[in-house]
Write a structure and sequence with these properties.
- With 228 residues, the protein is mainly alpha-helical.
- It has one domain (4-15, 26-222).
- It has eleven helices and five strands.
- A three-stranded antiparallel sheet has the order 1-4-5. Strands 2-3 form a two-stranded antiparallel ribbon.
- The radius of gyration is 17 Å and the shape is globular.
- Bound molecules: iron/sulfur cluster.
- Iron/sulfur cluster (SF4) is lined by residues 59, 62, 66, 120, 122-123, 128, 130, 134, 138, 228.
C-alpha cells in the first residue's frame, strides 16, 4: 500500500521534472507540490488522533537540526532574499541570522545542539517567519505534549509524544521526491538547512548548477535524517 503510494508520488514528481526540467519554475513546482501533498493529506491521516500541542508561536522544538532536500532549500533561499529585499529586510536581517546560526551549529551533534539551544534563525517575534515554505521536516515534526517539548529542549530526559502519521507522511513525500530527483539525474540528498541556505545565499549560481546535475550544496549534505 505504502509502496504503491510512494510510486504514485514519485511518478507525480517525475512528471514535473520532465516538463519543467532546468526551467526557472522547477524549484517552485517541486517544493510546492511536496508541501501541498503534505497539507492535503495530513488531516485525513490524523483524524483519529488527539489534537496536537503545536501552535503558532511555540518554537520549543526549533533548535533541532533541520534537514531538507535541495528544492526546498532553493525555494527558501528565494523567500529569504525577498524578505531581505523588503521593507523590514534590514531590521530582520535574515541572511545575517542564517549565517550566524550556521556558524554556531555547523557540525554539532543533536545533543550538542540541545545543550547550546541556538534557536532557529527563522524565529522572528516568537513565530516562524518562513512558515508558508517551511521544510517537510518541520511539517512532519508534531507533538501532543507542549510541556514535554519544553522539558526536552531544557535538557531533561523525557519522551516527547510525537505524531507517527506526520513523520510517516513527511518520509513518504521526501523519499518519493528524492527518488524522482535521482531518476532525473539530479542530486537527491538531504542537506542541513542553515548550512545549505548559507551556501545558496552566498552564491546564486548554486541553484542553476544543481539544476544542471552538480551537487552544489554538497558541503551541507548529511548522511542520515534526524531532524525536527
Ligand atoms: S524553519 Fe520554522 S518551523 Fe522549522 S525549525 Fe525553523 S522556526 Fe521552526
Amino acid at each position: 500500500m505504502i509502496s504503491a503510494a510512494s510510486a504514485r508520488l514519485e511518478t507525480m514528481f517525475g512528471a514535473i521534472l520532465a516538463t519543467r526540467s532546468a526551467s526557472g519554475q522547477l524549484i517552485e513546482a517541486l517544493a510546492d507540490r511536496a508541501f501541498d501533498l503534505f497539507e492535503a493529506n495530513i488531516e485525513a491521516q490524523t483524524a483519529h488522533l488527539p489534537p496536537l500541542a503545536c501552535q503558532k508561536g511555540c518554537p520549543s522544538c526549533c533548535a533541532l537540526r533541520v534537514s531538507a532536500t535541495a528544492p526546498e532549500i532553493f525555494l527558501i533561499n528565494r523567500y529569504v532574499r525577498k524578505i531581505d529585499a523588503g521593507p523590514a529586510g534590514s531590521t530582520i536581517g535574515l541572511s545575517r541570522r542564517i549565517a550566524h546560526a550556521n556558524r554556531a551549529t555547523r557540525g554539532l551533534s543533536e545533543t550538542e545542539r540541545m545543550t547550546r539551544r541556538e534557536p532557529c534563525p527563522f524565529i522572528v517575534r516568537g513565530a516562524c517567519i518562513i512558515h508558508p515554505v517551511r521544510p517537510l521536516a518541520c511539517r512532519g515534526h508534531a507533538s501532543f505534549d507542549r510541556r514535554a517539548c519544553a522539558q526536552a529542549m531544557a535538557g531533561r530526559d523525557v519522551d516527547v509524544p510525537l505524531s507517527a502519521p506526520h513523520r510517516a507522511l513527511r518520509g513518504l513525500i521526501q523519499d518519493a521526491l528524492s527518488s524522482a530527483l535521482s531518476r532525473a539525474g539530479l542530486p537527491s540528498g538531504l542537506y542541513e538547512l542553515n548550512h545549505g541556505l548559507a551556501l545558496a545565499l552566498a552564491d546564486e549560481a548554486r541553484e542553476r548548477d544543481w539544476m544542471l546535475g552538480t551537487d552544489s550544496l554538497a558541503p551541507a549534505r548529511i548522511a542520515t535524517d534526524a531532524t525536527a
